[in-house]
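Exercise 7b. Backbone tokens:
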């Protein structure tokens, strides 16, 4: 709703919002599919259109199937093999998108916009796609694909000498080579596409996904379908305030560093007194970008103190790691006193026997110290879990980047609603 108000800026917003709510079309597909010649973008667009029960709009369908003064002029130029001016094409797109079926069921633009001028005209008119897909493949692959194309003059069906040859000899005998698919002509079209696409891409920040077209068409389709069915991160003001809780050795520090690196969050380590922590969380970068806190709070009193000062987290994660894995991670850590290099006897052993002989263990990594810290954490974890009812518990005994993907999913997606 806010997006539409900003785009259209109606003089009287109340009737506009009422009309918009009556449409009930905020979640319909609004997709743009771009790609070079022979990338298969039309096929993918058609399959998505059928699967999503939406409307497919391409230059050909707009020019040949629409009936208006705009379409008549565009059709005349198109049939004379002349370029349809951008202003005329975008006007035709605007007229088509205003029709009831596009409003109700959404739309997929196949190969439009072709230039930056068209992209800017589309944006000026308030036509805002939710998802933009750009298919990509090496030029040599695309040229070879184009050279193998054949067309059935009776049905208009497209075939390929390598990938999609019809079994019926009757169809084989009448297939013809389409115009404009020679190596020279395809290379010229590819050059023009590359010149234009680099100027179109900046028009769609954060909603554009590049998919390799150099793979089976079915795989391309399912990747495209998965993307267009996903929800983008909301534009509403959301400042992540993340707590990572877990026993010593569960990987909290690494996950905090990964979150800080990807989302620009301020990484607030443990070992800070509450007064110092309060001063840090009040700084402008924490207020604007959010923060990730790990190793604190350690008990219920600290958690209540954190909340009482207004530092309520909006995402809490418990990293669950078995006792044996914690012991393996920590008690086998070593440090080289000569170089300062850190090793792990199982995951990163020293390269020579000489280095191994001089390795030292940090006293905090002894079995006794690790056992003590784990006992302390689990003594307080039940109270923390009860306080943070919406917390997400994750298996931390996995590859760290797999754990990070689960954490990231919990931050991007809305929290699940608990059924009473």
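Sequence design result:
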């Amino acid at each position: 709703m806010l997006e539409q108000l900003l785009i259209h800026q109606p003089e009287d917003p109340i009737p506009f919002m009422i009309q918009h709510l009556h449409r009930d079309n905020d979640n319909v597909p609004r997709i743009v599919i771009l790609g070079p010649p022979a990338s298969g973008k039309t096929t993918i667009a058609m399959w998505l259109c059928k699967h999503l029960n939406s409307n497919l709009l391409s230059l050909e369908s707009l020019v040949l199937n629409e009936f208006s003064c705009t379409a008549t002029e565009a059709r005349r130029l198109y049939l004379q093999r002349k370029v349809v001016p951008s202003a005329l094409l975008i006007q035709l797109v605007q007229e088509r998108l205003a029709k009831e079926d596009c409003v109700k069921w959404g739309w997929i633009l196949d190969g439009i916009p072709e230039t930056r001028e068209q992209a800017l005209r589309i944006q000026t008119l308030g036509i805002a796609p939710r998802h933009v897909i750009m298919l990509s493949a090496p030029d040599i692959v695309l040229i070879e694909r184009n050279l193998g194309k054949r067309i059935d003059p009776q049905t208009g069906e497209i075939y390929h000498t390598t990938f999609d040859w019809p079994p019926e000899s009757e169809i084989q005998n009448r297939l013809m080579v389409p115009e404009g698919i020679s190596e020279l002509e395809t290379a010229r079209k590819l050059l023009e596409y590359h010149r234009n696409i680099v100027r179109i891409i900046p028009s769609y920040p954060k909603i554009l996904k590049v998919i390799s077209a150099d793979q089976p068409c079915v795989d391309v389709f399912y990747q495209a379908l998965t993307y267009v069915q996903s929800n983008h991160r909301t534009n509403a003001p959301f400042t992540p305030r993340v707590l990572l809780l877990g026993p010593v050795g569960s990987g909290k520090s690494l996950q905090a560093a990964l979150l800080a690196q990807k989302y620009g969050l301020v990484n607030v380590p443990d070992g800070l007194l509450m007064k110092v922590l309060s001063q840090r969380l009040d700084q402008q970068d924490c207020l604007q970008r959010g923060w990730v806190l790990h190793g604190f709070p350690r008990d219920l009193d600290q958690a209540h103190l954190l909340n009482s000062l207004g530092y309520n987290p909006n995402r809490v994660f418990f990293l669950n790691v078995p006792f044996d894995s914690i012991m393996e991670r920590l008690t086998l850590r070593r440090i080289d006193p000569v170089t300062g290099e850190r090793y792990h006897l199982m995951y990163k052993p020293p390269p020579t026997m000489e280095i191994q002989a001089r390795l030292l263990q940090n006293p905090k990594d002894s079995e006794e110290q690790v056992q003590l810290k784990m006992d302390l954490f689990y003594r307080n974890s039940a109270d923390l879990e009860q306080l943070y009812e919406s917390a997400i518990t994750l298996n931390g005994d996995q590859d760290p980047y797999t754990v990070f993907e689960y954490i990231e999913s919990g931050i991007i997606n809305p929290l699940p609603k608990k059924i009473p």
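Instructor comment: The radius of gyration is 29 Å. The first helix runs from residue 2 to 8.
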